[in-house]
Amino acid sequence: MDLCDAYNKRANPHLPIHRGLWPWRVIAASVCGTRHEQKGQPCQDTHCWNVLPERVLVVAVADGAGSAPLGEVGAVIAARTGVEAIRTHIAQPWRPEDDEHSKLLLSDALKAARMAIEVEATMREVAVRDLATTLILVAATPEVVSAAQVGDGAVVVGEHEGNIIALTSPGSGDYINETTFLSASMALDTMQVTIWRGGIAHIAVLSDGLQMLALKMPSGVPHVPFFSPLFRFVASAIDERQAQEQLMAFLRSPRVRQSVDDDLTLLLATLMK
Questions:
Q1: Structural domain boundaries of the chain?
Q2: Per-residue burial over 51-78, b = 16 or more CB atoms within 10 Å of its CB, e = otherwise
Q3: Considering the entire predicted model, what is its pTM?
Q4: What is the pLDDT of residues 168-204, one digit of tens each?
Q5: CA distance linking residue 77 with residue 17, whole number of Å
Q6: What DSSP string describes 158-184?
Q7: Residue 247: which of 20, 12, 15, 25 has the closest Cα?
Q8: Distance (Å, rounded) from C-alpha 238 to C-alpha 229?
Q9: What is the CATH code of the structural domain delimited by 3-9+22-271?
Q10: What gap in Å lies between CA 255 and CA 258, rounded to an integer?
């Protein structure tokens, strides 16, 4: 169990899968890719999430750089700090109807995550790039989804009418498979921030390991046959633990692994009726 696993369990103790004060049903998993397994390396993907009493879903997905010796550490610190920063800010409270306020909330959380990585690098006496990671942050109510991203991966929304829309897309550099990490000096200049309003039914947040299966590249348009069954799956889930095991089995299935060998993270959230 990494620190984000521990955070998820502490922040969402015995989260009921039925609607009540919690309108969101969340099923999420991060699994190690075959390339890292063969090399005996840890999973460098992680995710954190929390459902607040204000009916706000807060999500972070981070992917540590494979070239960074402490990429998995950077990912955990960035994801955990990002969620905590949003949770603390929303307590002030957050004004989701104000787009500029939402953008400031997300950009401040990205800055807090970057600062936390810098502090960790100083404590370990290593370069900040040794903890390089991407970071996606989401703050959602039943009426609005706010998303921010540095690096690759994506945030996708499913509408009640069945439309599936990408809110962010993989951030790439000048070359294929190149991306910007939160540790880079220009990271915050490249961040994507999107505020979306509509008939929200589902949210998906994924790391770059899945983007070739889940998105039509290079456009980043969601691949409907990938998302539709997954949205139906989380909407019909009865037992949260069993559903998480099923999601992990899907991510480890031959169907997925024959296409990708990278670490994989997928977080699925459904707004319950």
A1: 3-9+22-271
A2: bbeeebbbbbbbbbbbebebbbbbbbbb
A3: 0.91
A4: 988 654 445 678 999 898 999 999 999 999 889 999 9
A5: 28
A6: EETTS-EEESS---B-SSTT-B--TTS
A7: 25
A8: 16
A9: 3.60.40.10
A10: 6
